[in-house]
Amino acid sequence: SDDIEVRELIKRYGTTTAVADLSFTVRPGRVTGFLGPNGAGKSTTMRIILGLDRATSGSATVGGRPFTDAIQPLRQVGALLDAAAVHGGRTAYLHLLALARSNDIGRRRVGEVLDTVGLTDVAGKRVKGFSLGMRQRLGIAAALLGDPPVLMLDEPVNGLDPEGIHWIRGFLRSLAAEGRTVFVSSHLMSEMQDTADHVIVVGQGRLVADTTMAGLIHAS
Ligand code: ADP
Ligand code: ADP
């Protein structure tokens, strides 16, 4: 199935322990929030799940397999990591077209995802002039290109205006309602409250809570 499984994950950078023995499972059909303060190890965990960084020990799998073997980026897993880092002189359309081409995805899909995230009107504008909110939308469009069953979004709400925040809530919920696995990090409980069904809370690289959103609100 389309579970994300993290087992006894440890990641050290020199003397810094970014992830200290983390285990959890993210299931399809709901929005799972990945909550914790800045520096808690959320991005590191996501990067390891995506095969962009190596664990010191432990494992991370998607659909039962490590990302590095046999998992197709974009088609099986779409990800948004560090939207602010999307730069370059290319237009939004060409940025997505290049990504689509290198993954054998047709150009028609580029138009579809631009429409989905509300960027059709600025598709011909250069990405370097984009606000952070527009970059978030563009990053989400990229993550959607391959119509993947699993989506991992790192702090997608950062930099969005109130209208964008309202949009992303409904959008993430609709992706989960379609049966997808939706894993979304945030350092703000308030951002997840009306969005996530389930939450994995981390602090200093350790699991603090793994519960329904209702359970978390009740406990606090
Ligand atoms: P979060 O996403 O929850 O803000 P991170 O995973 O970015 O947390 O960071 C966890 C810890 O690991 C922090 O102390 C951070 O400084 C450290 N860290 C993350 N990436 C690196 C790296 N490439 N080199 C050294 N330390 C890192
Ligand atoms: P480059 O510009 O060097 O081709 P990209 O970042 O465009 O680098 O893409 C490199 C590879 O990373 C892509 O072929 C794709 O497999 C993967 N990738 C890029 N963006 C995403 C994403 N949003 N979700 C999942 N995989 C991605």
Automatic annotation (TrEMBL):
Keywords from the named record: ATP-binding, Nucleotide-binding, Transport
Range covered out of full length: 3 to 222 of 311
A GO term, aspect molecular function: ATP hydrolysis activity
Family under the similarity heading: Belongs to the ABC transporter superfamily.
Source species of the chain: Actinoplanes utahensis
Keyword Zinc: no
Domain ABC transporter, chain residue ranges per copy: 4-220
Domain of life from the UniProt record: Bacteria
Protein name (record): ABC transporter domain-containing protein
